[in-house]
Amino acid sequence: MKKIYVLDTNVLLHDPKAFSHFDDNDVVIPLKVIEEIDHFKRDLTELGRNARQVSRMLDALRKQGKLADGVKLESGGLVRIAFPGDRDHYVNGLSADDQILKLATEIKKRSDQTPCIVVSKDINMRLKADALGLDAEDYETDHVDISELYTGQTEIEVEPGQLEAFKRNSQLPLPGCELSVNQYVMLRNQADSSHTMLARFDGDALVPLVGLPEELRQVQPRNREQHYALDALLNDHIKLVTIIGKAGTGKTLLAVAAGLHKTIDSRAYRKMLVCRPTVAMGKDIGYLPGTMEEKLNPWMQPIFDAMDLLSNGRSGGKRMMDGFDENGRVSIEPLTYIRGRSIANQFIILDEAQNLTPLEAKTVITRVGPGTKIVLTGDIYQIDNPYVDSMSNGLSTLVERFRPYRLAAHIMLSKGVRSEIAELAANLL
């Protein structure tokens, strides 16, 4: 049955092409949404870029016909711009949400038996719609089922002889065993469950993990998950690494340690570039006082803390980073500064990647040039961006989309290693 979808502003700010993702159904964009899009268009953030893209796309459709009457889309659906019939309400007093809901209510009354659905990424907007007797949905085009999110690891029981063969030959084919490429495996002896070995599936057979370099001996993996993460981080054939873990699992520390080793010690990469989304800062950094370094220092403190741990507290993470920065081997930049660039031969760490939208994640990954490795870390249950959640953020999307490819690996870290109290708090609170 054909449906009518009424879009909230946040849907288009999340995905500028959202109106084209409803198959052959009708899509209504309230006039108030256009006004709110106009409000965002001057922003220098990703929201501003998305707002401008929405305006350009709708302007292109306007040339094909009147948006007030509706313009046909390639999907077979129809998109139109509308406003409540009672114009006094439109100009006097109603909030943006209420104007959108009033329009949806009017459409529902006029549409006879055709379902009318409000689409919003705002939970409270969906609650208000439900209270008014309107159907409401989240925008789910890019949703990932968190309960089935790929962890990047598994366990397999094998015969004792197979473990010996793996140790002797440094590989173990497992015909008929369904594994994803670069999935990590703990091989467990059927006869003695305490006898285990760790491996990675390279697409053809299980292979041993990369050995820990002498320069990284101070970074001892605390559990097998960290062993897996370090293997992916140190393997130059794996160009994209995603690491998801709650607070205190060591994801940032491992990424920084591997990046420094690959850049400073083995010189496999010309430079290490560290980025974090600026969403947690509350506004574009251009509005903050001070030099660029002064603006970024508090925001990058977790990276400095990781440096401090790696230097055993002797030199201090900030001073350590300053020394590398002077030599041009390590740099810290806001994520917005890498847009439009082609970054070659660098080890990129993008921390707090759970705050990216799928479109922002795509923008970042497409900046990767020849010889570059990119690592994205984050906790999908600690999100500051109001336009994404654990199911729709860019990090979760990347994990699922890149799962079948040899150049990518993913590890889910679940065990806290910061301290007993930090682990307890992460689990209980």
What does this structure look like?
This protein is an alpha/beta fold and 429 residues long. It folds into 2 domains: 4-137, 3-Layer(aba) Sandwich (Rossmann fold), CATH 3.40.50.1010; 213-428, P-loop containing nucleotide triphosphate hydrolases (Rossmann fold), CATH 3.40.50. The chain has 15 helices and 16 strands. The protein has helices spanning 9-14, 31-40, 46-62, 87-91, 96-110, 123-131, 160-169, 224-234, 251-265, 292-296, 301-310, 317-326, 358-365, 394-401, 420-428; strands at 4-7, 26-30, 71-72, 78-82, 116-119, 135-137, 153-158, 184-189, 196-201, 206-208, 240-245, 271-276, 330-334, 346-350, 373-378, 408-413. The strands form 3 sheets. Strands 3-4-2-1-5-6 form a 6-stranded mixed beta sheet. Strands 13-12-14-15-11-16 form a 6-stranded parallel beta sheet, sandwiched between helices. A 4-stranded mixed beta sheet has the order 7-8-9-10. A hairpin with a 4-residue loop joins strand 9 and strand 10. Helix 11 (301-310) crosses helix 12 and helix 13 (358-365) packs across helix 14. It starts with a strand and ends with a helix. Residues 313-317 have low confidence and may be disordered.
List keywords for this structure.
429 residues, alpha/beta, Rossmann fold, 2 domains, six-stranded mixed β-sheet, 15 helices
Percent range for β-strand residues? 15-25%
CATH topology heading of the largest domain: Rossmann fold
| Number of domain modules | 2
Averaged pLDDT: 86
State Rg. 25 Å
Largest pleated sheet? 6 strands, mixed
Distance between the termini: 45 Å
Low-pLDDT segments, ≥5 res: 313-317
Main structural class: alpha/beta
Query: CATH superfamily name of the largest domain?
Result: P-loop containing nucleotide triphosphate hydrolases
- CATH class value of the largest domain: Alpha Beta
Tally of individual helices: 15
Describe the global form: elongated
CATH architecture of the largest domain: 3-Layer(aba) Sandwich
Q: Strand order, biggest sheet?
A: 3-4-2-1-5-6
